[in-house]
Amino acid sequence: MSTATLPPQQSESGSSPRWRLVGPGLVVAATGVGAADLVATLIAGQKYGYALLWAVVVGCLMKIVLVEGAGRWTLATGSTIYEGWSSLGRWTTFYFGPYIVVWGFVYGAAAMAGTGLPLHSLFPAVSVPVWGIGSGVVGALLVWFGRYELFEKLCAALVGLMFVTVVGAAVLTVPNVPDLLVGLVPTVPAGSVVNVLSVAGGVGGTITLAAYGYWIREKGWTTPRFMRVMRLDNRVAYIVTGIFVVATLIVGAELLYSAKIAVQTGDQGLLDLANVLDDRYGTWASKVFLVGFWAAAMSSLLGVWNGVSLMFADFVGHVRKLPEDAPERGIGGRWYRAYILWLTLPPIALILVGRPVWLLLAYGVLGAFFMPFLAVTLIWLLNTDRVPREWRNKWWSNLWMGITAVAFVALAANELVKVVTGD
Fold it and tell me: How far apart, in whole angstroms, are the C-alpha atoms of residue 181 and residue 179?
């Protein structure tokens, strides 16, 4: 996006950049927190009460560091994150190409099914597959023409629904504040290592973290003068995300831990929670929560349909050696729309027929490596002369990115074990 296309308040000759609560940070955070992430946190609260609250805080800090790194790379260099990866060698293409193709195919089905579950619970006359497929098609239409401003407003509305319903459910349970504060002290209860990794890794952590650099470009933040506003945008967004996830942990601790009620893994766990709310507080509570469940699922769907499609368009444009400003590499271009169709149409077969084992194995193996890939490559990129000296990593950035890389390598190893053993 050239500066000539920027709104007046964002042009190079205009006034200092202004920040608003609704921005790319809120988009990336809302997109990353899907139903599965909320269930992982819910189960942690169900099993250990408030003991893993500290892991939520650590998870938010890790994502702040990674997203800030992706944004800093984009603003400091004027290059996309994929262009940065490609500068590290062809191995990045050999990993990222198959990953984004397989990931999109499987995730498209999961995202549509995730939106279909709460809608079916609210309106049982229509099946989960029909609701899911309809959601995918609607999502595709909403992002097809590439209007970032509309996309951002839709995400903000969905975040509002999530906030009211999820945080409202936590307030309804009347949390135990002393126990909550004790949970901020790092402890690892017996058998909880996997849950610690899941909670810390699931606080808004997907491929959409890397999409942040594309969204800030669409916002009109294209040069280092937007560095401060980008950092503020990122931090506030993940504070909001942290509130969501803490609220989910509170619900798990107050409603499930004390009553020894277990919920299922995956999106089904949120339906189980809706039933618990129904029993405890009445039908109105479960219905309101289901709306929040749908908002979480739909915000993730919209974010992926837009952000990862942008990444794919940039990837294809780079492989085909198209100019950086080629329309095919941007929002609304040929490859952007091709990936939207890839996310929407082929996955319908997975929803209706089922997922082949070999595809799930490929998805699990490739997906396990993405967050370590992102963390390690950001450390690599942001400590070299690819970035102007003033915007390279400081020691604290390297420390946190190093901790993040180690944590995600451990999480990846756990995911690979699950893939191999079939758990």
Answer: 5
